[in-house]
Structure formats: structure tokens, C-alpha cells
Amino acid sequence: MLGYIVRRVLWLIPVLFVVSVITFAMMHAAPGGPWARDKKLPANVVAALNHKYGLDDPIPVQYLTWAGNLLRGDLGPSYQYIDRSVNDIVAQGIGVTAQLGIMAFLLSIAVGIPLGVIAALRHNGLPDYSATFVSMLGIATPSFILAELLILVFSVQLHWFPTGGWRTPANWVLPTIALSGFEIAQIARYTRASMLEVTRRDYVRTAQSKGLRERTIVVVHMIRNALIPVVTVLGPLLAFLVTGSFIIETIFNLPGIGRFYVLGIAQRDYGLIMAMTVLYAAAVAVLNLVVDVLYAYIDPRIRYS
Amino acid sequence: MATRTATIDAAPLRTRPTSLWRDAFSRLIRNRLAIVGGIIVLTLLVLAVFGPYLAPYPYDQQNIDQLARHGNLPLGPGVEGHLLGTDALGRDLLSRLFDGARISMTVAFVVQAVVLLIGVPVGALAAWFGGRIDQYLMRITDVVYAFPDLLFIILLSVAFRETFFGQALDGLLLIFVAIGIVGWVGMARLVRGQLLSLKEQEFVEAARAIGVSDFKIVTRHLLPNAIGPMIVAVTLGIPGAILAEATLGFLGIGVQRPRASWGVLINDGSLWMRVSPHMVIFPAIAIALALLSFTFLGDGLRDALDPKLKGKQ
């Protein structure tokens, strides 16, 4: 097991290397530069700025400089927010982004799993159809649409929650729901299918014929086993949450790091884009690893070698 | 064998041998959700092809004079003969939704073509040659897989938006490439997995024994046998492509205006949400219908083509 984890962690290095090289190459292949403003800067100013930030070096040299700085924990300067380093920007926003992601993840599990369990226990009954309906809605409304509709109903019409910002817990409600809608639907779908699968298993029939209480059968014998396959989809779903967060952050104007992404690319803010891409890729890879290890931990039949 | 002959004798007309496809088709048409999905998909395709002839107005025609009669606000549904209302420039929303259907369906199918074009050869090469080629190709797919999809799509779209390539076909060419280039990995893995098990079977041995070339074995014998799962994967991949395109449009980095992708329409509408919620609601319904119908059709195809999987994910 330890060997497996070590190998997976080591595999992260080439992955992040390739991701960063591709991003770097693409950013520099794209026309324009960080100094292209509405008001055109004089050529000598651009040259001086390029020289100051080392943008007149050959691209491979620039990459090595960036990678070397990264290994020392320095993400470099931002070209748009002149007085701030990328480290500052990330440090300021990562808390909000992480909080949003964690809350959305917990909400997805807290709603999705019970929804799936209830749907399976009342198979083909009203709860089943309601749960199926909810998960269909989740699939049919992507996060940005859900966000717009939530704002429309709960901010514009009912005035229950603010349309944006992050200061009070009331600000947290709509972004969290918008981000977790799709995951709730997916988790409910998988849980339902998995529960229906275990219902037919021998050990459930044995438990029933022993005369165990319904509750004991459901909680001890069914849910525990049904959740094992659900854990496998948590990895991809987490990745979806992480990358989905910057759309939500843009819509609700949250002070996280996500809203800088699209803006940063458009402004050719190289350092910021590189930092964000590598950060997101690393987050997705690490979360996937955690889920895989968790999977082996809760299912003793799985052994990685 | 004996019983089978007897049955045929007894009812020579009723027991025609059913082919795999006919069998699958009969299972498919018994699945109500899949049929509903299929009908909506067909409708969307008809709209995509004939939309400009069916639409009451050109999608980019501004009816400023009509807006002026109504306080210069977007017209609500039914006002001045606009069934679904207009946007803030007086452009008919129904006509714009039709153009959005054209964009969405084009993206849906072209992206899947890109996915097949890259994914199938990579998967087939990896499975057929195995060994080192397999290892290298699979490492490449691992890395592409590790790249967060949406980040990559957005990166490509924003970075190359101003170039000639980015402007081609109202920006659609860039969208095809950006979405297709991250989507092929799943297809490559699927084809590889299918071919790995197929290539051990006896008909492949037989083909090889009579001297059929490697290329022909893969294209004539292996791939046609894997076509079922590939069709399912393509159908279920379409909602992802539609969603990615809508997201790009919503972020303002997709198709170029005045083209009216559904995502662009929602983005436009979000500014007018307080006074004209119809500008968000109708495009949202269009996207929801498209996503659901392809998902239902794909689920139905999977159950029909592989009954063993029924009910599983």
C-alpha cells in the first residue's frame, strides 16, 4: 500500500511537468502579451518592461526560470496587479475557494447519498420518482444556469440571499448550492443504482431471514456495502467541483482565486495562469489519489500492489 | 439444434432469426425515456438543419422600432408577435434559440467526430501492438486525463481567440478543436479495452491464418465488433460537449457574436434578469432539453446494446 502511494505521488511529478509545459507553450504561442492595453504603450516602454520581467529571454529559459522559482515556492510576479505577487493573490483567495469547494462537497454527500438510499428503498414509489426527478434536474441544469436561476428566484424575486460577495454565511448559501447541484444528482444516481444492486445479495436475504430489524439491515448490511462503488466516482466529481468553482466564483463575484483565471488568460498574465493551472491540476490529482486510497481502506477486497 | 428446427417447421413465418441490431432496436423502442430522448434529438437536428427557414425572423435582425413602442425594454413573450419575446436589441428570441440549436448540434457532432478521429486510432494502435507502444500511448492519455478539462478548453479558447484560426467559422473551429482535444482520451481507453479482449478470440486467429493483413483485421474484424460500446460512448459524450460549448458562450469566450449560442443567450439575459427573466429561462430550458435527451437516448442505447449492463451505471 505504501509503495502504491509513493508511486502515485511520484507519478504526479511528470504529470504536473507536462501540464505546466503545455500551458506555458500555449500561453506564449498565443498572440499578444501582458502589456497590450487599450491605450498602446510606446515600444521602448514595452521593451523595458519585457526586460525587467525577463520576457525577452528565450521561451525555454523563461520556463526554467519559472520552474526554478516554483520549486523555491515563488510563483512569480503578476503582470496586471503590479503591486502584488502571484503568491499574495493565491494566499488571499485560496481560503475562499477551498471553503466553497469543501462546503459544496459536504452538501453533495449529505444530500446525494440519502436521496439515493431513499429512492432505492422505495423503489418505483413516489420517493423514487421524486429522487429521480431531482437528479434529472441536476443533470439538466449546469452550474452556471443553476446559479443564474438561484439568483433570479432567491435574490431578485424573494430577496432572501444576496446576489454575490462572501462576507456573511448568507452569502455562502447560493454559491454552495449552485456548485453542488450536479454532484448531488450524480451521487444520488450512483447510490440508488448501487443500493438496488445490494438489495438482491445473499447476505441481505440472510439478514432478513434471521429476523434482523429493518433498520439494522439497511444501515449495517446495505448502506455500508452500497457506498463502496460510490466512493470511486467521488474522485472525478471532486475534480469537477474544483474546476467548476471558478465559474461560480465569477458569477457570484467571490474573492477566491477562480475568478482570476479567465481574466488572467485574456490579459496574458503568464505567472497567474501558470500558478492557477498547476494548482488546479495538482488539486485534482491529489484528490483522485486520496479517493483511490480511501477506496482500498473501506473495501478490504481491494489491494493495490 | 433439434428443437430449433422443430420450431421453425411449426411456425416458419414467425420465428425469423433476429440479428443483434434488430434485437437491440426492439429493446430500444420499448424504452419510453429513450424514445422521448430520441424524438427531442431528432427535433433539435431538424431545427439545426432547417432552423433559418423555420424561424420567424433572421436571428440577428434588430427590431428597434418595436422596442421603442415598449419603453426600450426587451419584449416579453407574445408581445408584437414574438412568441418567446426578444432580447434587449429587439432580436426575436425564438429565432435566436433556433440558431443556438444549430450551433449546439454542430458542436455536438463535430466534436464527437474529432474524438473518434483521435481516440479510435490511438486505442486501436495501443491494443493491437501492445508492449511499448501501448505503454507510451497510455502514458500520454494519462497525462491528458490529468489535465482538468475545462481549464484546458478555456485556456485554448481565450489564448487563440484573436487569431485567424480562432475567428474561423465564427469561432466554431476553435471550439471544435478545444473540446475535442480533451475528449478523445475516454474513447481511446474504451477502444483499447474492447480490442484487447476481442483480439484473443478465434475469429481473429482464423483471419490471421488465411493471411488477412493487420490493418484489415483491425478495421474489418475488430472495430465493427466494438461499434456498440462506441455508439453509446459517443451519444453519452455529446451532453458534455454541448455543456462545454454553452459554458464557453456564457463566459463570453465561445462563438462570436452576433451568433447566438445558448450559453451566449444566457449571458445576455443575465444582465436583464430583473426585468426580463424570459431571456434566461428559455435558453436554460433549451440546454436542459438537449442535455437530458442525449442522456436518455445514450442510457437507452446502452441498455439495448448490452442488456447485461441494464440498471448499472
Describe what you observe in this structure.
The complex is a heterodimer of chains A (305) and B (313). Chain A is an all-alpha fold and 305 residues long. In chain A, 76% of the residues lie in helices and 0% in strands. Chain A has eleven helices and no strands. Chain A is flat. In chain A, 37% of the residues are buried. Chain B is built from 14 helices and no strands. In chain B, helix 7 (149-159) runs antiparallel to helix 9 (172-198). The mean pLDDT of chain B is 80. The chains are: A mainly alpha (305), B mainly alpha (313). At the A-B interface, helix 1, helix 5, helix 6, helix 7 and helix 9 of A face helix 6, helix 7, helix 12, helix 13 and helix 14 of B.
Summarize the structure.
The complex is a heterodimer of chains A (305) and B (313). With 305 residues, chain A is mainly α. Helix content of chain A is 76%, strand content 0%.
Q: How is the topology of this model organized?
A:
The complex is a heterodimer of chains A (305) and B (313).
Chain A: H1 2-29, H2 43-52, H3 59-71, H4 86-121, H5 126-140, H6 143-157, H7 169-199, H8 202-209, H9 214-251, H10 259-266, H11 270-298
Chain B: H1 2-10, H2 20-29, H3 32-54, H4 64-68, H5 93-129, H6 131-146, H7 149-159, H8 164-167, H9 172-198, H10 202-209, H11 214-222, H12 227-250, H13 262-271, H14 278-305
Helix pairs in contact in B: 2-14, 3-5, 3-14, 5-6, 5-9, 5-12, 6-9, 7-9, 9-12, 10-11, 12-13, 12-14, 13-14
